[in-house]
What we know:
The structure holds two protein chains of two kinds. By secondary structure, chain A is an all-alpha fold.
Amino acid sequence: MLPLIARRILATIPVMGVVALTVFGLLHLTPGDPAVIIAGDYATTQDIERIRARLGLDRPLLAQAGLWLASVARGDLGVSIYSGLPVTRLIGQRVGPTAALTALAMLISVTLAVPLGVLAAWRQGSWLDRAIMIFSVSGFSMPVFWLGFLLVWVFAIQAGVLPVQGYQPLEAGPWQFLRHLVLPAVTLSLVYMALIARMTRASVLGVLREDYIRTAFAKGLAPRRVLLAHALKAASLPVVTIIGVGFALLIGGAVVTESVFAIPGLGRLTVDAIVRRDYPVVQGVVLVVSGVYVLLNLVIDVVYVVLDPRIRY
Amino acid sequence: MSSSIHASGTEGAAAPPGADALPAEARARPGRWRSGLRLLRRQPTLLAGLVALLLIALSGLGADLWWTADPQALRPVARLRPPAAEQWFGTDQYGRDVYSRTLYGGRISLAVGAAVGVTSLCLGVAVGLVSGYYRRVDTLVMRVMDGLMAIPAILLALALMALMRASVRNVIIALVVPEIPRVVRLVRASVLSLREQTMVEGARAIGARTPRILLRYILPALVAPLIVQGTYICASAILFEAYLSFLGAGTPPIIPSWGNIMAEGRAYVQRAFWIILFPGAFLALTVLAVNLVGDGLRDLLKVR
């Protein structure tokens, strides 16, 4: 088991290398001179030269790539063009709200979506199943920011029970923290919930056809017990995978949700950086978030190997 | 996702003999229209999606006909008017008619969705065929694809938009890039399994060259899964275009795309919710329709 895990961990190193090179390559493969575009429409020649020098764009391409990889490996993501602060510090300041938002959204979706998926599979073909699946495809098609505004309109503007926007850190008290976070988290969780419910249903349906489920019924076990102890256990592996894969969706949604609810997280940092054409910050956020995504999937794969002795790479 | 939303409905119903006829066979018989209709009736998901999509396309493409005003006409006297008989969806902060803007905005969304779907398929098929068939390029190409896949799609699109000027063409490029690896993976996996089949071996034995094998033997087997994939890409592209515009990194603000209308309306959520409500409802309905078409096609074409 251990060599397997070690091999899986080693396999993420080239992936991260490729991600770093891709983020680097974006700057050079897009049409036009990046220094001119980053400098903006009203830049002077000196501005452009300054940006070119700061980003190292005046060096040969291979040297730039090498320097970029080396600095990323050291944990140095460069300096923001706009504020002059190190990108790592900017990201550090903004990680908290995004982490809180995605964690709460993940919690909400998993606790609601897995039971929904199991129910749909259990009552396959019934109106309940259809209702859950219609909910799922609608959730999948729902524009995140539109849903956010709908919820704000209903719960904050019309009912007035929750704040319209803003963020309170946990230090401000758990009640204030949750009050501000509940609408964004519900908004963000819908897409993810749709995805997980769909996957859980498919996966439980697959397991329910197995022989040992029939055996479990035949020996007289209560349906609830068969469903929860036998079927869900076996069906949980693909569900855990989709929780990991869907994290990319969640992060994308977080960027939009943070914008709607004025949450000072990584998404806002990215959007502000794009408006200011602060490319080092954009690069840094993309790299860090992708790193988290790759790591999360690594953890899930490792958990898999521990849980399921059949898995071999 | 391997689940199918309405599979339960179609599986459960007792099918009459021959009801499982493939669309190709149905088309070969006389009275193809009637068979086509019967096929649709057995696919309520597909039918619902197609009808909704048709209505939305008609509302957008025929926007001139549906009693619209000039979507850009400013009427400062009629600022922030609520929905009423004169302005069905209300007016925005410049007195522009939200109904007209919503209908015209549909054109951008549909065009971007279709363009991204078609372009990602074409590029993904080209790369995937080559990568699956030539071992030498395969490793390199797949590593690059893994790297692209590891970057969340919206972030990748945003990063690309940060480097390009705001234009519809550049939005399409920014949305195509994150989709390509998904198509490449699908194509490559199919090529790897198909190339071992006897028909390919036979074709090679009678002297067919590689390009011919790829195009005449392998590509046709990929058409059904690609159509389904393309539909889903189209749905997510429509959504992502709105996200980019909403975040200020999409189509130029002068164009009344759904995302832009809502971005402008966000400052007036409390006073004029209709500026966000109506374009968003159209957006949600469009994406839902395209997703339903995708689910329906997947069931119909029996993809996975």
